[in-house]
């Protein structure tokens, strides 16, 4: 179990280096989705929807490691975007 958690932490660090602060990124996505959906969307909702997307993909292939890592990563960052 610790190996996949360590891998997820590495992915989070890589994405932070590539895309910047996750809270700022999710705020940007939330603003765009708010326009698309015609209602306010929060950063937390974006994270929860991304987790749902990955869970839907896992329902198709429960062995897809990248989707598992992504669920872990989004869940780990959820408290960071809700501050």
What would your notes on this structure say?
This protein is mainly alpha-helical and 83 residues long. The chain is built from 4 helices and no strands. It has helices spanning 2-19, 22-37, 43-60, 65-81. Helix 1 (2-19) crosses helix 4. The protein is globular.
Provide a concise account of the structure shown.
83% of the residues lie in helices and 0% in strands. It is mainly α and 83 residues long.
Blueprint (SSEs and pairs):
Layout: H1 2-19, H2 22-37, H3 43-60, H4 65-81
Helix pairs in contact: 1-4, 2-3, 3-4
Percent helix range: over 70%
What is the radius of gyration computed over CA atoms, rounded to a whole number of angstroms?
13 Å
Oligomeric state, counting identical vs distinct chains: single chain
Give the termini separation.
Answer: 28 Å
Strand content: under 5%
Number of helices: 4
Overall mean pLDDT stands at 95
Order of helices and strands: HHHH
Query: Got a strand count?
Result: 0
Low-confidence stretches: none
Please describe the biggest sheet, giving its number of strands, its sense, and whether it closes into a barrel.
none
Shape designation: globular
Structural class: mainly alpha
């Amino acid at each position: 179990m610790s190996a996949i958690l360590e891998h997820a932490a590495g992915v989070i660090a890589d994405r932070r280096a590539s895309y910047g602060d996750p809270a700022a990124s999710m705020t940007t996505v939330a603003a765009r989705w708010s326009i698309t959906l015609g209602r306010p969307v929060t950063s937390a909702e974006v994270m929860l929807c991304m987790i749902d997307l990955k869970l839907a993909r896992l329902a198709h292939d429960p062995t897809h490691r990248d989707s598992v890592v992504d669920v872990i990563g989004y869940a780990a960052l959820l408290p960071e975007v809700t501050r």
